[in-house]
Amino acid sequence: QVHLVESGGGLVQPGGSLRLSCAASSFNLAFYAVTWFRQAPGKEREGVSCIHASDGTTVYKDDVKGRFTISKDNAKRTVYLQMNSLKREDTGVYYCALREVYHCDHYDSGINFWGKGTLVNVSS
Asked: How far apart are alpha carbons 122 and 2 in whole angstroms?
């Protein structure tokens, strides 16, 4: 049974921080590139960040560079997204997703496994 479970979302004021977690209990993360997506209300889902399966290389969407940090702990089978200096436009449902490749090229396509998402609401 496939398990990708996101957690850590919630309500936060602009300028605040959240750390999202993605528990990937069925997967050895050393063999999968992982992407965090978000879907804002009324908008299409978009890739936000990716981490390479083996060398830890990271990629970020331009509007989150310097504010978000993706990381993972292979032993814990968990991927994280640390989000700082949050803005109202960061509001949305955040999903983690796995691809059966190592690299982050075209990280917002070719997804093999999806989680169900966690809601982030940036509001005062």
From this structure: 30
